[in-house]
Amino acid sequence: MPNKNMNDIEIADLYQELIVDHSRRPRNFGRLAHATHQAEGFNPLCGDKVKVYVNLDQDSVRDVSFEGDGCAISKASASLMTESIKGKSRAEVEQLFSRFRDLATGSGDTDASGLGKLAVFSGLHGFPTRVKCATLAWHTLRAALEEKSGLVSTE
Amino acid sequence: MSALRVVKSADFDLSAVRKDFPALHQKVYGKQLVYLDNAATTQKPNAVIEALNRFYKFDCSNVHRAVHALSERATKAYEAARTTVKQFINAQSEREIIFVRGTTEAINLVMNSFGRQRVKAGDEILISALEHHSNIVPWQLLAEQTQARLVVAPINDAGELILDEFERRLGAQTKLVAIAHISNALGTVMPVREVVRMAHARGVPVLLDGAQAVAHACVDVRELDCDFYAFSGHKVFGPTGIGILYGREELLDQMPPYQAGGDMIRSVTFEKTIYNELPYKFEAGTPHVAGAIGLGAALEYFSQVGIDRAAAHERELLIYGTQVLGAIEGLRLIGTAREKIGVLSFVLDGVHPHDVGTVLDRDGIAVRTGHHCAQPVMDRFGVPATTRASLAFYNSKAEIDALANGIRRVRKLFAK
Predict the structure, then answer these.
(1) Interval A109-146: pLDDT, tens
(2) Where would you tag: which of A76, B49, B235, B303 has the fewest CB atoms within 10 A of its CB?
(3) Nearest-by-CA chain A residue for B372
(4) pLDDT of residue A110
């Protein structure tokens, strides 16, 4: 798919079953009781809001959850993000975000191997207006880990 | 809008008018474009594109300045456009027609000039709950700077202004009423004649935000009896970056300039400057000459199509669209006013508007999704956003069918 021309990427390449499923039944959804880190993200262009809670044990993510409302892409992305970072160190999370962003924007190394379920977003680069929907949760996660206060905005 | 009931859309030749709009005849993602985002901006007819072309090819020059031939032609065309606008909205004189960048600048002009002169601490500015941000934020800013109060008249569940509530909020402190002629988010036609009557009975001037009205209804400022009327060229088949502020001459006369610079002066010395007469007092700097000429061409074209005929066709489309979309399971129309224009704003059970918009886009269907620069309206209906299909006279029933089929595909996709 990364080799597909942008205009040839079809709607079914974006809204794959896994994405629709996670948007309808988000995993790790809700407030985390013993969060050590948290942050809130906002996309002022569309009103999507997300809160990410992390329980950090030394340097690794013991638990993570999210709350919020938004489009299918933003919810599925947040849900799949929480699944894929549990047990990972901060450095590993940062590296995963970087690879995920490359995949979402279709830039850099578009090889999806090693991304696990996140590879389901490989159709996203055909929809440039929707990339921010998918990266909002990640930016919010990064802010939480960096203990930045205030609202993270996509703009 | 009474004209809608007597004019038959049978006199309207849809395929002929569609030929006038080159942008409509294109494919996106391999599908025929279905353009249903007319409340955001309208497509441009050849008449407008050619007028712009002609200006830049032959007449490009500054206005009101030089004695050479090109400047004379440019000035003549620019002032002819002003006369066209005057006739189109039935103003009394060209002195009441001010070229601005768009509705937003027109409202900001009134806020800065009229507002700062007249509104004092403790005064009130009355708006409605249906306003576009551009008819909310300038007044908030003014209220903040003058310690005045912004008062909001509520709407009902259909998206109509509650007139009693509006009247109750008109008080001795009210210095201005600023209200949409037609709502951008829901398409509601506001009871502006009653609003003006109630306000004038208390000596309060009224500004009408006509951004959504000019392309869908006959606008007659003298019949409306409003004091200010603001609209944008690009929403009435004209270019972007040009708009109109109509103001009653006696009010404009008393108002101080909004921006200062060239063309708005009669004489300048370091001791004293004498301002130019209306409307130039409010047109500092080189204006958007090409835009004004393009707007003139747009209004002439629209008048030739026939505003009543176009409105009657749109009315039929709205009735058809309301039926077809209303029959889709899980779809809720937001904004069901008795008097409305061709705006179909809706939410779909379990599907976010942005996902609706993306799926429709790949079908070649252009709609707007989001809060439509009217967040308080979204809050009123308890939704974060809607999908909005907005019509122009060049739309067809087949395009509404395409929209309905697209929405059904969205539902199927998310029913997994």
Answers:
(1) 666 778 999 999 999 988 998 999 999 999 999 999 99
(2) B303
(3) A46
(4) 62
Examine the domain organization and report whether B135 and B268 are in the same domain: yes
Q: Do B250 and B161 sit in the same domain of this protein?
A: yes
What are B278-300's pLDDT values in tens digits? 999 999 999 999 999 999 999 99
Q: Which of B73, B61, B78, B63 is nearest to B294 (CA)?
A: B78
Mean confidence (pLDDT) of chain B? 95
Cross-chain Cβ contact A73/B354 below 8 Å:
yes
Residue of chain B nearest A75, judged by CA positions: B352
Please indicate whether, in this complex, the C-beta atoms of A10 and B362 are within 8 angstroms of each other.
Answer: yes
Is A155 an 8 Å CB contact of chain B? no
Q: How many CB pairs under 8 A join A and B?
A: 47
Is the ipTM higher than 0.90? The answer is no
Number of H helices, E strands in chain A: 5, 4
Conformational region of residue B203, where left means phi above 0, alpha means psi within -120 to 50, and beta covers everything else: left
Angle of the B46-54 helix axis to the B289-305 helix axis, nearest 10: 150
Residue A65 has a CB neighbour count (10 Å cut-off) of 22
Dist. CA B47–CA A73, nearest whole Å? 42
Does the active-site annotation cover B218?
A: no
Which of B350, B351, B370 is the closest to A46 by Cβ? B370
| pLDDT score, position B121 | 98
Return the CATH number at B340. Answer: 3.90.1150.10
| B217 Cβ contact list (under 8 Å, min separation 6) | B1, B181, B182, B189, B307, B311, B341
CATH of the domain at A139: 3.90.1010.10
Q: Which amino acid is at B334?
A: I
How many residues are recorded in chain B?
416
Number of domains in chain A: 1
| C-beta of residue B221 within 8 angstroms of C-beta of residue B89 | yes
Does B194 share its domain with B129? yes
Range of the domain at B90: 49-303
Q: Please indicate, yes or no, whether residues B220 and B83 belong to a single structural domain of this protein.
A: yes
Catalytic residue among B60, B218, B226, B373: B373
Give the number of domains in chain B: 2
Q: Which residues of B touch A128 (CB under 8 A)?
A: none
B356 and B224, same structural domain? no
Cβ-defined contact of B370 to A127 (cutoff 8 Å): no
- B371 touches A: beta carbon within 8 Å: yes
Tokens linked to B169: 């909020």
State which of B265, B281, B303 marks the end of a domain.
Answer: B303
Pick the residue from chain B with its C-alpha nearest to A10. B362
Tell me what pLDDT residue B5 has: 42
Closest Cα in chain A, distance from residue B31 (Å) = 11
Nearest to B354 among A17, A21, A133 (CB): A133
